[in-house]
Amino acid sequence: MQKLNRSFKISNEIKKKISWIICYQLCDPRLFNILISVSSVNLSRDFSYAKIYVSILNNKNISFKEILTILQNSSKHIRYLLAKGIFLRIIPTLHFCHDSSYVNGTKITNLINNVLYNK
Description:
With 119 residues, this protein is α+β, with helices and mostly antiparallel strands. It is built from 4 helices and 3 strands, in the order H-E-E-H-H-E-H. The chain has a single domain (2-117), classed as K homology (KH) domain (GMP Synthetase, Chain A, domain 3), CATH 3.30.300.20. A 3-stranded mixed sheet has the order 1-2-3.
């Protein structure tokens, strides 16, 4: 149980730090005016690998795949900045994934509204 609690605390701390890094320290002009939110972080058992789920609100004509590619290409720099801000023996390798839960939730809400109001 203690291992799970530690894993939860570390993943939350990594989530906070990566959110801050993406928002304030990642200076890629292609990511300006794009809201990137870190939804969750899944760590491997030995904390050497982290899967980061991001939600993206896009005002530009950039696809989700392009944004994820930009983040993945910047993952070494993000990992370096993460190592400066968090004190762990092993800083995990970062892998970014698109979190589609917001889009799926919106679709389900629209379907429910259509059923309820279009009788």
